[in-house]
Design a protein that fits this description.
Elements: H1 7-12, E1 14-16, E2 34-39, E3 45-50, H2 57-70, E4 79-81, H3 85-94
Parallel strand pairs: 2-4
Antiparallel strand pairs: 1-3, 2-3
């Protein structure tokens, strides 16, 4: 099943390319006003999310569920959200 995002959502939510050559990201890899989020259940994809999402109740619920799953120990070095990528994109598109 494919979820199509409105063009505005594509500009706000940015997927960050993780290559095998990069072992870890640094704060220099993150655009000002965004923070990295790792999404997925088995294989994680890195997204850059606007800081404004932190004020959104829907995104806060998603973070609470991630906290229940992972606690505050995030093995990827950033916030990890254990859900399918399409669910994350759907939630993110609603926040715009």
């Amino acid at each position: 099943m494919t979820i199509r995002l409105p063009s505005a959502a594509k500009h706000i939510l940015r997927r960050s390319a993780l290559t095998t050559n990069k072992k870890s990201s640094t704060s220099l890899d993150v655009t000002k006003g965004f923070f990295p989020v790792y999404v997925g259940e088995s294989q994680k994809k890195r997204f850059l999310v606007p800081l404004s999402f932190l004020n959104q109740p829907l995104f806060q619920d998603l973070l609470s569920k991630a906290e229940e799953e992972f606690g505050f120990d995030h093995p990827m070095g950033g916030v990890t959200i254990p859900c399918h990528e399409d669910v994350f994109l759907d939630v993110s598109s609603r926040l715009n």
